[in-house]
Amino acid sequence: MRYSITHPMHTHPYHPDLVSGSGVAAVAAAAEAAGFSGFGFTDHPAPSQRWLDAGGHDAVDPFVAMAYAAAQTTALRLVPNIVVLPYRNPFVVAKSGATLDLLSGGRFTLAVGVGYLKREFAALGVEFDERTELFDEALDVIRGIWAGDDFNYQGKHFSARGITAHPRPVNPPPIWIGGNTAAARVRVARHGDGWCPFAAPPGLARTAGTAAIDSIDRLAAGIEDLCARVAAAERDPAGIDIVFNNFEGGNPGDDDFDADAYLAGVEKLRALGVTWLHVTIPGDSLAHALETIERFGETVIAG
């Protein structure tokens, strides 16, 4: 099992120590030292005040921040959580991703999602109702431009003739696709190297416009469906990463965190085919985040 964290900007306002060069460097270096395999940032370039007041959170630019983190580490993969692909032109995403992968020595994974915040789409000039079409075309473009020269593409939203974009990434970065729905799993079967659903009770699922996954049984059903779709696409399900959270053991930042129960949950998830676990790190202070990362490394990763 591999473990990944997102830089802990969970609130609005955020703790200022977390959003400094030294703070980002400290979290990234601590994660690598503790044995984490992945580190990334969220993507909210233009959130609404209403969303922030309702429990949303601030964010830095994920590509800029991941590049900074890459310079502080040597082995940690840079995995955003997640890039809202319809927000950006796919050629620009491909260029940012290729640059980050090249400069980090091949350590970038592009994790992407469709997005759900209508006001953020409006602020960015992107049609909310066209987001799934934009998403699918963008995946085609990114795969194509990373694969070869003199690239041609004709879609509803993007048109390109004879495009060559160098330098290329070290190797085409893995693409993980977020979302709990069957539509997300269809995209994984067609385009993806990984599926990254998230734990969502019915209320959160309605807000995020996705399907509820609030138990290991629902996760298992989703994985079974994913494997069938990947096999039907004549691909090997064993080659698809699956990323999730752990329902057991509690929050790693809490005093009552139970590492043994957490590890028991890890084994259950491993048996289902989960290959990466996303770990939530507290964002109330830099010191608490660093302490939690170190303790998790000692009690779970090393255990």
From TrEMBL:
Gene3D superfamilies assigned: Luciferase-like domain
Domain Luciferase-like: 6-220
Keyword field: Flavoprotein, FMN, Monooxygenase, Oxidoreductase
InterPro entries: Diverse_substr_monoxygenases (IPR051260), Lucif-like_OxRdtase_Rv2161c (IPR019921), Luciferase-like_dom (IPR011251), Luciferase-like_sf (IPR036661)
Domain of life, source organism: Bacteria
Listed GO MF terms: monooxygenase activity; oxidoreductase activity, acting on paired donors, with incorporation or reduction of molecular oxygen
NCBIfam families the UniProt entry points to: F420_Rv2161c
Name of the featured protein: Luciferase
Lineage: Bacteria, Bacillati, Actinomycetota, Actinomycetes, Mycobacteriales
